[in-house]
Structure formats: C-alpha cells, structure tokens
Amino acid sequence: PVDCSFSRGVCDWKQDTDDDFDWNLADRDSGDGYYMAVPAFVGHKKDMGRLKLLLTDLKPKSSYCLIFSYRLAGERVGKLRVFLASRKTAPVWEQSKGKDERWRTGKIEIFQGAETTNSITFESERGKGKTGEIGVDNVILASGLCPED
C-alpha cells in the first residue's frame, strides 16, 4: 500500500516539467500538516499543472483503490483531473466546480492487466476565476476494491 500525505513526503511525487505551472505545498488551516495546492490566479486560462505520483511494485492482474481528498474552492476555479499512465488520453476522474469549499473524498478503482500502471497524475486546469484554489491531500493507494461508502 502507498500512503501519500504530503506532511511526511514519503512518496515519489514529481512535478511535470512540460506543463505551465507547479503545484505548491500549502499549510492546512488547522496547522496540521500540508497539502498540495494550485491557487486560482496562477497562470492563464486553460493552463495546466501536473503532479505525478510514481508507483512501483504494483502487482499485475490485481486491483487497487486510489482514495484522495480534494477541494475546489472559489468561483470558476478550474478543473481537477486524474490520469493513469496506462490510459494517458482520457482522465479516469474529473471534477470541475465544488458545491462549497469543503474537502471531499475521491475514489478510483485501478485494475491492473498484464501491464501495470506506473504512475498516477493529478492535473489542474486553470479556470476563469481569480480567487480560491484546487487542493489535493491524503492520497492513499490500497490493494483490493474500493470500499462502499
């Protein structure tokens, strides 16, 4: 299992060098650790920032559950997408506007075929808004199917 909260920095996170801006560490309001964020005002509309989590030792022909916290705060802040390396073209998860500024939980089932997924990418796309941010935290990859709520 992979447990990737940003406070401990245990995971192999990489900023994409071909994108338009970087994700940054941000302090949690509670003073309890950090999360990764992209403020709404960074870059130009449609600019992208990608944060890649490199995965090693995933077993072929098995399933995993990716669980993460995310927040889309602010008016027209943009989009958050998740891509798996094995299927680069279409995101496996996408969210644009949050109903409110609360943190929510995202879950994605990852089925490994003969080829294993070697990275997961969180992509932030800049929207029209000037305030707010897109945040990601507590990324956990557990073996087995995702639990029901």
UniProtKB/TrEMBL annotation:
One GO cellular component, as annotated: membrane
Pfam families recorded: MAM
Residue ranges of every copy of the MAM domain listed in the record: 2-148
Domain of life, per lineage: Eukaryota
Gene3D superfamilies the UniProt entry points to: 2.60.120.200
Classification via SMART domains: MAM (SM00137)
PANTHER family referenced in this protein's UniProt entry, alphabetically: APICAL ENDOSOMAL GLYCOPROTEIN PRECURSOR, MAM DOMAIN-CONTAINING PROTEIN
Name this polypeptide is given: EGFL6 protein
Source organism per UniProt: Casuarius casuarius
Lineage, uppermost ranks: Eukaryota, Metazoa, Chordata, Craniata, Vertebrata
